[in-house]
Design a protein that fits this description.
Elements lengths: L7 E4 L9 E6 L3 E6 L5 E5 H6 L1 E5 L9
Antiparallel strand pairs: 1-2, 1-5, 2-3, 3-4
């Protein structure tokens, strides 16, 4: 699965704050994610997070310049 820093992941289950969307802060063997609801940051195994991803929203290269 092609996940990049800055992507917004929509997960199958909601965080305890109620938000399902997370921003990717770091990739590699591990992911570091920030909850878009409360700002909580978590780090965990890539394989664990990839199983729970429902959708990936990516900024296009042209959109970042605005």
């Amino acid at each position: 699965m092609d996940i990049r820093v800055g992507d917004i992941l929509t997960m199958k289950k909601a965080h305890p704050c109620g938000e399902k969307r997370w921003q990717v802060l770091r990739t590699g063997m591990d992911f570091k994610l920030r909850c878009l609801g409360c700002g909580h940051e978590v780090m965990g195994a890539r394989s664990k997070f990839e199983r729970n991803i429902r959708a990936v929203a990516r900024k296009e290269a042209g959109e970042e310049a605005r």
